[in-house]
Specification:
The protein is mostly helical. It is built from 11 helices and no strands. It is flat, with a radius of gyration of 23 Å.
Length: about 210
């Protein structure tokens, strides 16, 4: 009696980048709350159990996504011809904003996984190098780096979750002017403020406050 031939396809191998890209696609489409092992398995066209061959849980998926996004941030040191230290730091912060801002739903994950990400560690190393060249001391560099990270993460959240062009600004503009004179004035003026002007205006204020 002849042996039966196994016609089942062999499971395909998936790379970490493929897993991360599938998880990122889910997040971009459904938000962070939509990320699950099952959703990523569906995105990849495999069973949930098969996905467990590659990652142990959602936390590992999150770490892969963070590295995929933050790993794309250009951490090449800006040349001296880019200008004074403020101009070079601005260039580095812009790179972070452009890359992470393309996937704003990932932002909450950056806080819990950033210390594991070679991408963000390289970016931080470059920023610290520029600050060191500008004469900042060791403690000053730590404070400056964390302040810059807090600003760029917060600014991206503001831009995508609470944009000045959104309903919140319109509601504030309609408040009683005698009770909220400054808030209503700010809301009316904010209508002409673009996201780029808001971001770079705030960054310029922050860098000016760092001194040197």
């Amino acid at each position: 009696m002849p042996y039966a031939v196994n016609t089942m396809p062999r499971p395909r191998s998936l790379t970490p980048d493929q897993l991360a890209a599938a998880a990122l696609a889910v997040i971009d489409r459904e938000g962070l709350s939509g990320l699950s092992m099952r959703a990523v398995a569906v995105e990849l066209g495999i069973s949930t159990m098969a996905l467990y061959r590659y990652v142990a849980d959602r936390g590992e998926l999150e770490a892969l996504v963070v590295e995929l996004v933050l790993g794309a941030v250009d951490s090449t040191p800006p040349p001296l011809t880019a200008g004074p230290w403020r101009a070079r730091v601005t260039l580095l912060v812009d790179r972070m904003r452009d890359t992470v801002g393309a996937h704003p739903a990932v932002l909450p994950l950056t806080m819990s996984h950033r210390h594991r990400s070679p991408g963000v560690l390289r970016w931080g190393e470059t920023v610290l190098g520029v600050l060191g060249e500008a004469g900042f001391g060791a403690e000053e560099r730590i404070i400056a780096l964390r302040t810059l990270l807090a600003y760029v993460i917060g600014a991206i959240q503001q831009e995508h979750l609470g944009a000045l062009s959104g309903a919140g600004t319109a509601a504030i503009a309609e408040l009683p002017a005698d009770e909220f004179p400054y808030m209503t004035e700010a809301a009316l003026g904010a209508r002409s403020l673009t996201p780029d002007r808001e971001f770079h205006g705030g960054l310029a204020m922050l860098l000016a406050g760092l001194g040197r």
